[in-house]
Amino acid sequence: MPEATAAETTAKTLEQKIRARTARAGIVGLGYVGLPLAVEFARAGFTVTGIDVSEEKARRVNTGKSYVGDVPTATLAPLVKDGKLRATADFSAVAELDTINICVPTPLRKTKDPDMSFIVSACQEIARHFHPGTLVILESTTYPGTTDEVVLPMLTQSGLEVGRDFFLCFSPERVDPGNPKYQTANIPKVVGGVTPACTEMGRLFYSQALQTVVPVSSTQVAEMVKLLENTFRMINIGLANEIALMCDRMGINVWEVIDAAATKPFGFMPFYPGPGLGGHCIPIDPFYLSWKTKQAGIEARFIELAGYINGQMPHFVADKVQAALNDAGKPVKGSRIHVMGVAYKRDIEDLRESPALDILLLLKRRGATLAYSDPHVPRLHLDGIEMQSAPESAAADADCVVIVTDHSAFDYAGLVERAALIVDSRNALKKFRSPKIVRL
Ligand code: SAJ
């Protein structure tokens, strides 16, 4: 029997550690993606080290106190106490790790170009302590080619060969914060490697902790899967918004149209118009794709058009408010306008890219006196001025109320009773009939 080559030994050793769950797992980036992932591997029996640039996050994890909604402290604390999960801000921990998942942010710059700085700095730190026998998996949503063109060169500079000395994959994160049914453990996990051996190592690793693993043939396929998922969503929301603009012009109730179309048991999937697109995924991910395709000489016209239409919705809502006040004989200038709900979507506290901020700014610039109520967002900054969330009852004093985010906690019946005029951008008042309600 010929001697096993060094490469075969490296792969075999790592494979055995993963199967035995003695592999020391590392998660870089302890946010709403990284912390739940760290917990899943710790629960599967791995000893997990979380690495985050924030000392505060590392400290919080080590006290067993969760700061991520999907990770109850009751789940985190015992894992920390049993030594299965610890966190640090010191990347030298990489030297002791066998697997590393990179779960750092990939925002857009103001110019709508990808901001790769978080991925690059994480990989620079990893490369400084890199060693043979390591499996690295990038999870941050990014354009096709990032793993092979950006991450791989930073790791091979150590002289190590991918697929032989170390293994490199991409696996899209699919965390849907607050989703009661789908959490990290039961969301199918797509994974694609730089080489078939990489894909197999990634598949083996995830299958130790997650219910379903979907191996694909390359990192580019895995990167593209995520972008298709979220671009599909952004474009269909854009279509719903364009249908709303058409129906508004033709005097048709778009909400009734969509609800009736949704009775079709096949070949249709309802999306709904709204005040615009918020969040850190849907409005952003498609522009990672269009940025890359532009370099390949292909204009992503659907993405650009949907982005334009979605971007127009805050203006459309502000115009609806202006027209509603006008019909009541009131100019926007000097009118008291009360915005209900500012988070980017229902029943969360996240303000990122929220269209409510655009709507507040537009109305402020038209001279309105503004207030808002949001039980999940106690305060916000608008044009450098801090606004505090007012009690819902204050909406009764407004010349016009605008429902921008339809939180479940709002007392809609009370609002219809007390408010003078309501512009509803979410069909939150679908059960109510009143001349004071103006729908999108
Ligand atoms: N929105 C509409 N109309 C719709 C649906 C959403 O205007 O019909 C708006 C929302 O109000 C929000 C924005 O679009 O401002 C994004 O909403 P979202 O429901 O897509 O929620 P996100 O941004 O939290 O998207 C996440 C994504 N998850 C991941 O990327 C892992 C997305 O892929 C999920 O499909 C989505 O959650 C979900 O289904 O909840």
User: Ions, cofactors, ligands: which are bound?
Assistant: ligand SAJ
Q: Give the count of helical stretches.
A: 13
**Oligomeric organization of the protein chains:** single chain
- What share of residues is helical? 25-40%
Q: What is the averaged pLDDT score?
A: 96
N-to-C SSE string, H for helix and E for strand: HEHEHHEEHEHEEHEHHHHEHEEEEHEE
What is the annotated CATH architecture of the largest domain?
Answer: 3-Layer(aba) Sandwich
Protein model, in words:
By secondary structure, this protein is an alpha/beta fold. Helix content is 39%, strand content 15%. The protein has 13 helices and 15 strands. It has helices at residues 6-20, 34-43, 55-62, 73-81, 117-128, 146-156, 196-207, 219-250, 254-261, 285-295, 301-327, 355-365, 412-418; strands spanning 24-28, 47-51, 85-88, 99-102, 134-138, 166-170, 189-193, 213-216, 336-340, 369-373, 379-382, 385-388, 400-403, 422-424, 437-439. Strand 9, helix 12 and strand 10 form a beta-alpha-beta unit. Helix 1 (6-20) runs parallel beside helix 7 (196-207) and helix 8 (219-250) runs parallel beside helix 11. The relative contact order is 0.08. Bound molecules: ligand SAJ.
